Write a sequence for this structure.
């Protein structure tokens, strides 16, 4: 049995420039961090006492006699990609799916980490990120960028640069005190709206050519935000920049925001938040605000109908938190299925 723990991520700046159609021509950059909310993937070989060969649990329970019958596309394609058989796969998470935190990619990374471990093979963080991108974007043919898989695998507070042929993960080097100050000034709220990010991603990909100027400006904001963090500039400037990037992003496509989300955002700003943004592709999920300490109670009161989620930055990325070797006779399996 293997259990992996994989963090969720929050992206501050540059989202949208991690789409292949954009960064191959223009380059791309995002500034993001992982934080202490996780998904947990448990994988073990299924004992041969049942009339089914695979069990996948992720809100519903699938029991199938062969891998091709599995409905969950990431599980099905990852099992076929790594030649996995007769598995019991279970997914649990601290926060809901489809909420702008890269949960599907965290699941893909954590599952692949568990699969490699179960096979007795080592896969480093770049291998896990690359494989998760391949499974989601190529095998599952899901639209979207590639920052989520990288962030979930590597973990930490990073600048990720994208270019034709690859990417670089560059840790943002700031003092623990300044990082804690930033963390303490960020407030996370769940809007209650969930959405399928791939649907918004399709719309965003179609708009990329027409919104090149906005995306280039959003890419440039990564430089500005990094300068704020690594210098002695007032951290409130980070909050103001969040507001600016949100105004840019919400105009990329009309699916990113709506009247309800705009009203929630305005409520937080009116209560004292300096800036903020909706996390992820848009359309719902979690809203992040930058709020000075003396204004936080007012913002919590203004957003009292939403769930407030305290969090701390984390640095580990995907990890194996339990491993118990087990024997699986692949030759016996082949004989039974021929």
């Amino acid at each position: 049995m293997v259990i992996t723990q994989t963090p969720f991520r929050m992206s501050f700046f540059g989202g949208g420039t991690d789409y292949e159609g954009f960064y191959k021509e223009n380059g791309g950059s995002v500034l993001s961090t992982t934080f202490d909310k996780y998904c947990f993937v448990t994988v073990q070989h299924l004992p041969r006492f049942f009339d089914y060969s695979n069990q996948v649990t992720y809100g519903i329970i699938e029991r199938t006699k062969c891998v091709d019958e599995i409905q969950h596309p990431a599980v099905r394609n990852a099992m076929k990609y790594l030649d996995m058989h007769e598995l019991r796969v279970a997914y649990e998470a601290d926060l809901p799916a489809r909420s702008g935190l890269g949960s599907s990619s965290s699941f893909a990374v954590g599952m692949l980490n568990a699969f490699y471990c179960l096979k007795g093979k080592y896969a480093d963080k770049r291998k896990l990120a690359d494989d998760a991108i391949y499974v989601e974007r190529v095998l599952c043919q899901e639209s979207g960028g590639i920052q989520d898989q990288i962030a979930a695998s590597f973990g930490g507070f990073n600048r990720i640069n994208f270019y034709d042929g690859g990417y670089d993960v560059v840790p943002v080097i700031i003092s623990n005190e300044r990082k804690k100050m930033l963390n303490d000034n960020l407030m996370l709220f769940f809007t209650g709206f969930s959405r399928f990010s791939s649907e918004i991603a399709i719309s965003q990909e179609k708009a990329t050519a027409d919104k090149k100027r906005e995306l280039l400006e959003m890419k440039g904001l990564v430089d500005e935000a990094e300068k704020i963090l690594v210098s002695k500039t007032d951290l409130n400037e980070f909050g103001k920049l969040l507001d600016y990037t949100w105004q840019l992003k919400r105009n990329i496509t009309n699916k990113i925001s709506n009247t309800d989300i705009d009203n929630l955002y305005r409520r937080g700003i009116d209560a004292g938040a300096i800036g903020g943004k909706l996390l992820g592709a848009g359309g719902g999920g979690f809203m992040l605000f930058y709020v000075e300490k003396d204004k936080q109670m007012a913002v919590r009161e203004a957003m009292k109908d939403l769930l407030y989620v305290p969090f701390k930055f984390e640095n580990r990325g995907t990890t194996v938190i339990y491993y118990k070797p087990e024997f699986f006779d692949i030759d016996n399996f082949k004989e039974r299925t021929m």
Remarks:
- The first helix runs from residue 20 to 26.
- The chain has a mean pLDDT of 91.
- The radius of gyration is 21 Å.
